[in-house]
Each structure stands twice: as structure tokens, then as C-alpha cells.
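G., the chain you wanted modeled:
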Amino acid sequence: MPTFKRYTPDNIHQWNDFVKTSKNGFFMFDRAYMDYHADRFADHSLMVFDEGGSLVAVLPANERDGVLYTHQGLTFGGFIVGRKMRTPLMLEVMEGLKAYAKTEGFTKVVYKAIPHFYHQQPAQEDLYALFRQGAKQVRVDVSSTIDYTTKRYKFSSSRKSGLVKAKKEGLTVQAGLDFTAFFGMMNEVLAEKYDTQATHTAGEMTKLHTSFPNNIKGFACTRGNELLAGAIVYETETVAHTQYLAATEEGRSVGALDLLLKHLIDEVYTDKNYFDFGISTEQAGQYLNEGLIDQKEGTGARATIHQVYELECK
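Predicted structure as C-alpha cells:
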């Protein structure tokens, strides 16, 4: 049976080197990204070794109130697996996780699976293993994703209308974004519309961008020196994901977001397999924000899902 070892900072290089060569890992599972908010979570990440002592999987995780979560500080993140991982071994790994969690006194594991389009190679052994262990799917969120490898849907008529306005206004799009100005603008919009604030602060995003300049990038749509819309994009080997996307009221009225997205989708990221907007669901997936998803699907994106499971350990 596989052996489970709790991650400590002494293992940072082994962890990061494994993520870089894995089938389904990327920069968000690097400890430099995970640990920027280490003070908010009680980390309980795990490293899994086979009978020969080789590292075969890692699990970003934290503990809270007697539950082991695949890390709550990340959008998703189940087992990150090496290229030697096969289905029979994953069955043993998942059985081992259940036994480990029970021994450590956890009542259950809450497992947020990595969407398939982030995989560099197929890596859904975990979903089958969860099924075999009797895990229950407790949440499904809907994301909106463009698949560059298939025939794409076109921009909707309303998006095209926005492009016409943007061109008449002489708007321009450029790489590079003042994070302080963008977060100030975005948080005003979030407070007004949803009574909330961005997950990250401008300072945190600046730090993360400095640590991962090839993976975290900003783009701005402006009229002269006026910021009308902006995007922060997370890049992986297969996916360009809009982590943050926002526009001022004036920007929305003159099609700034339409021009910005057209530029990103049709010019900047055509070398990726997917362009992803993230989820449009709330209340643990039970409520679909139809206005929000309509905007995303207006670019030609269509539904993909994020899955969450509970594995009882009693």
C-alpha cells in the first residue's frame, strides 16, 4: 500500500519539482503560490509514496473543524499525479487517503477535482477511485470555456455591437496592467453589484505576478490614459483563464470588455487548447447567475464543470 507523509517546508523542493513534471499540475500548486496566504489556513498537504519509496502523488490540503479539504485556498486541486500513475495504483492511493484521514481523526474528506482541461495528459483516475470508495458528489459548478481544438462558436450579436462601439471610440488594448488601479476599480464594481471584494489584494497579486511572471499577466483596455477595462489572466500549459475581469460603467457602455476579450481570445491565446472564464454559479452550485453566464457564453464559450465530492471516513 502507498505511504502518506504530511508535507513540511523541508519538502518544498521535492514538492515543487514533482508538480512541474506531473500529469495535471501547474503553477497554482507550487508552494510559492499556495503559501502566500498560509496564515489563513491550517495546511495539511500530503505526499504519497509507493512501496519502492518513489513519490507518486501530492495532495494540496488543509484541515478545518475535523474535516480534511483539498485546499480551500485554491479554486480546485485533488491529487497531483506523476506520469507513472495508473488506475490500479490510484485505487490504492484513494483507499489509503480514506484510512489516513480516519486515523488522523477526520470525519470526511472534501475533494475538489481538477477540471479535465487543465490536464497535460488524461488524469481522471481519481474520479473513478472516489466512486469506488463510495464518495458522494455534493457540488457541481458551471464554468464557461472555449475549446480551441474544435470548431468555435462566434461572438453573439450583442458582443459584436460592443466591438463596433469600442472601435468608434478609439479604444486600445495593451499588455501590462497597474494592479493597484485595477483592483481599486474592480472592488468598486464588486461592492456596488455584489457587496463583496476580490479574493486577492493588489499587493498579493503584485507579489504573485513577481513570482510567476510567465503565468500571471495583466491586460488593459484604455481610452488615452483612462482605464476602462482590465483582465488578469492565469496561464498554464493548456489553459488561459481569466482570474479577474472587470470594467468601469463607462467601459461597459463603450464595449471595452468586448474589445479586450476579442483581443485575448483571437490574438493572444490561440496557442492554448482552452480559454476559460471560470464559474457562474453560487450557493454551492445550486444557483446559476444567468446574466453572468450569458456574457461569457456570448464570446462562444460553452459549459464545463467543476466537481466536488465528500468521502466519509467514519
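The chain has two domains: 3-142+308-312, 150-272.

Shout if anything looks off.
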